[in-house]
């Protein structure tokens, strides 16, 4: 899936809404400055590239289309609607008829850096998921890296976005991430300082996202203590390799801590 570097907003589409419901949805985008800044309605023909789908759970044909989309766009996040009390697990659920303020808030909560995705959940529990934080000031880059992860990695993933170091630290206060991708192009040496901070407070495997052929950024990544550097525009299959290294890193850290704890208990 090619990256559209010009799209900096969350792409929103609808599945199974009536013509009247579609008009209500479009009116929300017209009258809300906040939505205009963070979201954009996409054409139905571009649904495979969308980030958020407004899904009518009461429409049987819409549910068939949704199931089919799971094979082509696994990052598509639903906001569901139902007049009959239907709900979907791990999805924002709203009642029909559509209420402007509730839909507006739901869209804002899912837009941009606030997005969180669970990919390939299967029967995985929280302990078996690879928890990933993608830190980049550009939403298209965050979305691109996440989509490449869903394309090349088959493990259960928990993916979070952050648009700044401050927001990333807020997320890390509540989550023990296994893998952190950091934009190497933060202003001044902010990316380097943030990388060092992460390494000082967590056991996360850190990958710096660099611009193509940027030797300076690669050098800064090594100096900052990151585990690897990755060209953000041609990540592809290397993402799978880095996730594999991260899993081995997590296992090694766990074994070291377990061995240390066992030795302490034995000495006592």
Structure report:
The chain is α/β, with parallel strands linked by helices and 268 residues long. It folds into two domains: 10-110, Rossmann fold, CATH 3.40.50; 116-257, Rossmann fold (3-Layer(aba) Sandwich), CATH 3.40.50. It contains nine helices and eleven strands. The strands form two sheets. The protein has a six-stranded mixed beta sheet, sandwiched between helices. It has a five-stranded parallel beta sheet with strand order 2-1-3-4-5. Helix 8 links the parallel strand 10 and strand 11. The termini are far apart.
Feature tags:
disordered N terminus; 2 domains; 11 strands; 5-stranded parallel β-sheet; Rossmann fold; disordered C terminus; 43% helix; alpha/beta
Please report which band the strand proportion falls in: under 5%, 5-15%, 15-25%, 25-35%, 35-45% or over 45%: 15-25%
Number of helices: 9
Order of helices and strands: EHHEEHEEHEEHEHEHEHEH
The Rg value, from CA coordinates, equals 20 Å
How many domains, as an integer?
2
Structural class: alpha/beta
Q: Can you tell me the residue ranges where pLDDT is under 50 for at least 5 consecutive residues?
A: 1-7, 261-267
Helix content: 40-55%
Q: Could you describe the largest sheet, including whether it forms a barrel?
A: 6 strands, mixed
Q: What is the spatial order of strands in the main beta sheet?
A: 6-8-7-9-10-11
Overall mean confidence score, pLDDT: 79
Could you name the CATH class of the largest domain? Alpha Beta
CATH architecture annotation of the largest domain: 3-Layer(aba) Sandwich
The CATH superfamily of the largest domain is known as Response regulator
